[in-house]
Amino acid sequence: MTLFANLPGWDSKFAAENATQTPVMPTKGRNWGATTGFGAPRTTNSANYSPGYFIFDANGASPAKGQLDESRSEQEPLPAPKLKALPPAPPPQSTSTSSAAATSALALESEIAWVHSGGVLRDAHGRRDTARTVQIREQLAREADEKRIIDAWRAYEDDWARLLADSAQNSTQPSSSIQFQDIPWPIAPPLSLPTVPTTPGSKPQKPTTRPVEIPDITLDSVRSFLFSTLALPPSHVYWTQQKGGGTLNERQIVKLSLLRWHPDKLGGVMRRVGLSASEEGDLEVRRVKEGVNAVVECLTHLKEELS
């Protein structure tokens, strides 16, 4: 009775009237009767029972047990979410294999840089590796030739595209004059003769490019330039590709070159040559016409060779 007497609002009269009634206590499996004197312990199901306040009715009846929400246990379980299948994992790459490949690539770069600077390779025993050195030197020379050809063809096509675009804009009233050196001639840039060293022990200077002159436009120089791209790897011949794909052959290259250098196609270009009414302007006109005739003559000869 001491327990209920300590509750707020509890008086002695109400306690005396309900002393003979045994309230139901949420025991949760513990022996409350042994400690409080409320009779035998009552075991409750702790899985679906939630202890709360005691509920007494207005007439002082025994406290009612809280209503349990049994519908929760009767509900159907939610369906498991569908998971998308993940792509298969890539095969594991061996760390030692990738490390060995990186080391080999770094060693090759070092060898190429050393040979390019004029050095000689050595084998694992410290002996001069002449065969390996010659192999890398040939590779470097091959790459230098490919770069030279690619640069020459890029400049040739870019200069022609720029010249035709400018001529189309100035077709009605040409405002700018062009000279012989402004024409992209179908030959490799000629090289100047190397200078002879005047100081004992000094090395001769490397030849440099010089402006094109009419004697430079020969059958051999035109043939060498037009067909130089055919010896390159397929990845480098994008400027000699057909519209539908496939590399151009010699006959097709000559045919396209004849269409480019036909006098009727060069009308807009020729109108811009020697605009100034002077002796120098007349000289440029004669030089350009002579150069165009030399190119057409070389292309016609190549066409006859391939027919």
Give a written overview of the molecule.
Among the domains are: 68 residues, no CATH class; 137 residues, no CATH class. The chain is flat, with a radius of gyration of 50 Å. It is built from 10 helices and no strands. Helix content is 43%, strand content 0%. Helix 5 crosses helix 6 and helix 8 runs antiparallel to helix 10.
Helix proportion of residues, in percent? 40-55%
Q: Give the integer mean of the pLDDT values.
A: 75
Helix-and-strand structural type: mainly alpha
Largest sheet, described in full? Answer: none
The Cα radius of gyration reads 50 Å
Please trace the helix and strand order, writing H or E for each element: HHHHHHHHHH
In percent terms, what proportion of residues is strand?
under 5%
Q: How many helices?
A: 10
Tell me the span between the first and last alpha carbons: 128 Å
Shape: flat
Please report the total strand number as a whole number. Answer: 0
Low-pLDDT segments, ≥5 res: 1-5, 27-41, 46-58
